[in-house]
Amino acid sequence: MKDYDHVIVWTDYFNRNLSRRKGRKVSKDVAIFDPSVQELVDASKSAGFAVSSDNTNESARFPRRPYVRSGYVMLEKNENSKKSNILNTLAGKISQNRAKLSKRR
User: Fold this and answer.
1) Strands 72-76 and 56-57
2) Residue 1: inside a domain
């Protein structure tokens, strides 16, 4: 049965190496190269979503690429939030977090 209270966010949605046909959902200018589940969790927490270890899966395979393990995070949906808005917010947060890490190095 479909869960209408949660949104599944796959790492492949933000992968710059993928085409839209292969599963990327954000534009290339906000997409990043090879995102990890941990980056997605950190971005979700900084965007204000509550993420627990029960709602993450690092070994799951994205349906359009069953030969690669990508992983996902399950987020609780708000009343007025659309999935596309959530994805664009998370893409911005992931980019910000990567920029902070690169400045530290």
Assistant:
1) antiparallel
2) no
